[in-house]
């Protein structure tokens, strides 16, 4: 497979795994492909804000079952060609054969991607449904890591679950699966969002004790919508602290008050995690940067402009 190295823009040759080992906290942001013209305008406003303020990298998600595959490649391509942002693509194994996955990896390589987040993914339509392997696909995330690493010079990230994955029979099983991904060649990991820093520290220490020393970046999302975070908690099994839920419900009709609480909680969480040696923070933006930029400013003094 030809990877088109000559066409890769200089900033895209940077490897996220190396950046995260540099000793300086890195701040990154998750985006998703737009579904409408309005969504696209919002996304690009956020992209330009993040670029202007020096985000270390951004990631572009990939829909379950390939539901946003074309848009993921298109969005990734445009960010790479029109901005200076280091860009990571997500790659999921759901409903894809190995041949289709190889083709997808080739697409990413050809638009200049050198950093990929490899996740097995959730079943389309219902994340809690039984996971069914494609007859010609892969069963575990570590197989996807191996496939990507064998397809080119990629820095590969994987998912981590500080509270445990809802499909795991116990927390220790989740640790073993994570170590399998590490041994398959993963260069770094990004966690699902969480609220208790002790969960992150427990996971980090457990995998380190098992001989896995890759950087693990905490996933952080400032709450901006109560129903949204409650729905996310149900789908993923994430713990949504009752004391935080009570604070948010007390001001549920005041959008700005909810944002202020979300920024306060995310800032406090980020401060603790960075003080404990986390290599950076990866913000789930939902394609809006106002709250995340406020947290970012609180944590590293970056200038944050006005506007959503």
CATH class: Alpha Beta
CATH architecture: Alpha-Beta Barrel
* CATH structural fold name: TIM Barrel
**How would you characterize the largest beta sheet?**
8 strands, parallel, barrel
Termini Cα gap:
42 Å
- Overall helicity: 40-55%
- Give the averaged pLDDT, no decimals: 88
- Count the strands? 8
Task: Give the amount of beta strand, in percent.
Answer: 5-15%
Give helix and strand order, one letter per element, not per position. HEHEHEHEHEHEHEHHHEH
Q: SS-based structural class?
A: alpha/beta
Q: Estimate nothing, just give the exact number of structural domains.
A: 1
Return residue spans where pLDDT drops below 50 for at least 5 consecutive residues.
1-8, 302-308
Q: Output the strand order for the largest sheet.
A: 1-2-3-4-5-6-7-8
Which key features would you list for this structure?
308 residues; alpha/beta; TIM Barrel; eight-stranded parallel beta barrel; 11 helices
Could you explain the architecture of this structure?
The chain is about 45% helix and about 15% strand. The protein is an alpha/beta fold. It has one domain: TIM Barrel, CATH 3.20.20.220. It has an 8-stranded parallel barrel with strand order 1-2-3-4-5-6-7-8, surrounded by 5 helices. Helix 10 packs parallel to helix 11. The longest helix has 21 residues. The N terminus and C terminus are likely disordered.
């Amino acid at each position: 497979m030809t990877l088109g190295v000559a066409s890769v823009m200089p900033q895209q040759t940077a490897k996220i795994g190396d950046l995260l080992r540099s000793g300086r906290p890195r701040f990154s942001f998750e985006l998703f492909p737009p579904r409408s013209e309005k969504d696209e305008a919002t996304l690009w406003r956020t992209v330009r804000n993040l670029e202007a303020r020096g985000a270390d990298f951004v990631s572009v998600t990939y829909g379950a079952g390939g539901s946003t595959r074309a848009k993921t490649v298109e969005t990734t391509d445009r960010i790479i060609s029109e901005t200076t942002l280091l860009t990571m693509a997500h790659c999921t194994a759901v409903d894809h054969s190995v041949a289709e996955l190889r083709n997808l990896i080739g697409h990413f390589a050809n638009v200049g991607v050198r950093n990929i987040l490899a996740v097995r993914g959730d079943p389309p339509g219902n994340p809690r449904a039984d996971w069914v392997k494609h007859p010609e696909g892969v069963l575990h995330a570590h197989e996807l890591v191996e496939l990507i690493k064998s397809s080119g010079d990629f820095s590969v990230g994987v998912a981590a679950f500080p509270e445990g994955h809802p499909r795991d029979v116990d927390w220790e099983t989740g640790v073993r699966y994570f170590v399998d991904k590490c041994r398959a060649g993963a260069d770094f990991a990004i966690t699902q969002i969480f609220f208790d820093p002790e969960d992150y520290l427990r996971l980090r220490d457990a995998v380190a004790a098992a001989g896995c020393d890759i950087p693990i970046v905490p996933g952080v999302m400032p709450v901006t919508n109560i129903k949204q975070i409650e729905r996310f908690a149900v789908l993923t099994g994430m713990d949504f602290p009752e004391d935080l839920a009570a604070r948010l419900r007390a001001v549920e009709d005041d959008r700005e008050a909810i944002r202020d609480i979300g920024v306060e909680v995310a800032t406090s969480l980020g401060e603790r995690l960075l003080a404990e040696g986390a290599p950076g923070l990866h913000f789930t933006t939902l394609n809006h940067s106002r709250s995340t930029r406020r947290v970012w400013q609180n944590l590293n003094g970056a200038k944050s402009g006005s506007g959503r």
